[in-house]
Design a protein that fits this description.
The chain is 38% helix and 20% strand. It folds into 2 domains: 73 residues, 2-Layer Sandwich (60s Ribosomal Protein L30, Chain: A), CATH 3.30.1330; 169 residues, SPOUT methyltransferase, trefoil knot domain (Alpha/beta knot, 3-Layer(aba) Sandwich). The strands form 2 sheets. It has a 7-stranded parallel beta sheet, with helices on both faces. Strands 1-4-2-3 form a 4-stranded mixed beta sheet. The model has no long low-confidence stretch (mean pLDDT 94). It has 9 helices and 11 strands. By secondary structure, it is α/β, with parallel strands linked by helices. Helix 5 links the parallel strand 5 and strand 6. The longest helix has 22 residues.
């Protein structure tokens, strides 16, 4: 299956990651060949990807935010749970994974993928159905971070059990409920899977039962909760901070 990746950073990172098959690049007439466009063209030359100059309306039909460039390529290459576990072992690090329970907004998914890649997470697990997948819109929302990240589609509850059994992972669910512990009272420096629930309903009961502990972020303002992508990103950086302190202490 072919698809179009649009946007300068998304196209650049897709080419740089080399995880897909590339067919052709379209650039809007009049776009200057400098900065990111120059880098994209250099990668296309290195990868032998055909480049065509086309009228801007042709790109407008592909995306409202193409930024003058679009790459035709194969579909997103999903990973398996074993790939995520193998990457952690390869790096010699305790597992750090993100489990997303029915995140449906492409912008939220893209933001979470970008944060997960930025903190060095070994992978992300998303459900097989009823959730956003890695579409071109998600690739663009993640600024191409999705291309450097292992994302697996799986039964999330079963995936959590697999991570517990094979990596001795601690599963931490992010939820603002009365049963939740403040995030700073929970250890985040070992093998860890952070679970973020649906934007409106949170985690499903079965997924929640597979969590070892629930944590919440402090709320001192007048609103009751944070956006799922913002809250998940904060917790990813809290985990990175805890792991960094552990490394420094060794």
């Amino acid at each position: 299956m072919k698809e179009w990746i649009c946007g300068r950073n998304a196209v650049y990172e897709t080419l740089r990651a080399r995880r897909r098959q590339f067919f052709r690049l379209l650039i809007a007439s009049g776009v200057e060949e400098k900065g990111r466009i120059e880098e994209i063209l250099a990668l296309c030359a290195a990868r032998r990807v055909p480049v065509s100059r086309v009228p801007r309306p042709q790109l407008d039909s592909l995306s409202e935010s193409h930024q003058g460039v679009a790459l035709e390529c194969s579909g997103y290459p999903y990973a398996g749970l074993h790939d995520i576990l193998a990457l952690a072992r390869q790096r010699g690090e305790p597992l750090l994974a993100l489990g997303l329970d029915l995140i449906q907004n492409p912008q939220n998914l893209g933001t979470l993928l970008r944060s997960a890649e930025a903190v060095g997470a070994h992978g992300v697990v998303i459900p097989l159905a009823r959730a956003a997948g890695i579409t071109p819109a998600v690739v663009q929302a993640s600024s191409g971070a999705s291309e450097h990240l292992l994302v697996a589609q799986a039964n999330l509850a079963q995936a959590l059990e697999t991570f517990k059994e094979e990596a001795d992972a601690w599963v931490v669910g992010l939820e603002g409920s009365p049963e939740s512990e403040p995030y700073d009272r929970v250890r985040l420096d070992g093998a860890l899977v952070l679970v973020v629930g649906n934007e409106g309903e949170g985690m499903r009961p079965l997924v929640r039962r597979h969590c070892d502990v629930l944590v919440s972020l402090p709320m001192r303002g007048k609103i009751e909760s944070l956006n799922a992508a913002v809250a998940g990103s904060i917790m990813l950086y809290k985990a990175l901070e805890a792991r960094s302190r552990r490394e420094e202490a060794v």
